[in-house]
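user: can you give me the structure for this one chain? tokens are fine.
assistant: on it. calling the predictor now.
[tool input]
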Amino acid sequence: MTPIEGAAMTTSLPQSSHEHANRQAGHPHAARSVAQHAAAVQSLLAPLRSVDRTEVLPLAQALGRGLVHALRAPISLPPFANSQMDGYAIRSMDVPDGGAELSVAAPVPAGQTPPALAPGTAAPIMTGAVLPEGADAVVPIERAVPDSFQQPGVSTTVWLPAAAAGTFVRAEGSDLSAGDVALAAGAFLGPAQLGLLAGLGITDVEVYRAVSVLLVTTGDEVVEPGQDLPAGKIFDANATLLEAAMTQAGLHVQRSAIATDHPDEFLDLIRAGRAGVDLLVTTGGVSKGAYEVVRQAMASQPVEFLHVGMQPGGPQGIGSIDGLPFLGFPGNPVSALVSFEMFLRPALTALLGAPQSRLPLRATLGHDLTSPAGKHQVRRGSLKPGGTVELAGGESSHLMHALAGANVLVHVPVGVAALAAGDEVEVWML
């Protein structure tokens, strides 16, 4: 069970006036749960799953997309009974338990339709070749005497051991029968799925369009990498971190200039870059400080700023600006990435079939940890051979070096205050 199981299938989340009033008043006990916020994000993005956001692509261009409609197999796989081995095709009734000497029939190369197999004969057959009519088993060449195929005219007989009917035979439709569902609606199209479709003779598929995101980093203290770094300033890691994560997940990312802490300038920046964009994602400016530009700029917009019971990544913004769906992530880099992995990525997977879900695994803690009361903690870790996970860095959300050394997210659910070395935890592979 994943930490937010059940949220992915929810398309709306009614919010009581009591809950909203408590959050607006800043009561800490009114924090939204991870599952509730995941459901709210999915509800916000539900319009992305519409018929006008689909396209038909050739298989070579469909990698990483989600399938719109279920596809049924137009043919069976394999389309005919064939040999699983290089060997001899036989009629199993012709070979008793002690083996038998059989006459060698004409060989059966792959790609040709052979004649029926006469009783008392064995046909040399190649892997993948059509099983002759009458044959029902294949004996591998290494079990034959002689154990190599002979040149025509050299040997007219071969000794073979007994083989039960069906031995080393790939039956027609043993992988997939014609008319069966090959891929369900919403399936993620990775190499294996595209290979299956190609094997069925399908050349193109209808998929959901890639989501286009306008990504905005905020803060007067943030400067672009490569510029001078005045005292009190920091280089912008968030934009590169999130752009890379989103691009790897198949999203199309448009980065804006860094937004200052002036609300009017922030709004001008958003409105200038929103053309053709499906979603606005910002980092920073969503907490309760004195210079939270995103909160200030969206005071007149249908946007809610709230706290999710999660560490890191508690402060979140959600709503729309001039009709454009909006998600506001915290400004610390780890918090921003965890927000993407916990909320945006699963919502798109549930709605559009892509990106691919993170793989949840069970791992054994390498050492003790503690977790704050009432929060779902997400730690970074390194999963070692043998299934032990070592935590990378501490709880703080600014530890970029620790994040760079991690290969999993470690989940500590709400209600778990401490875990000891040797306890099991759920981890998501990054």
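assistant: here you go. Residues 5-28 have pLDDT under 50 and may be disordered. The domain at 82-170 is CATH 2.170.190.11 (Molybdopterin biosynthesis moeA protein; domain 3).
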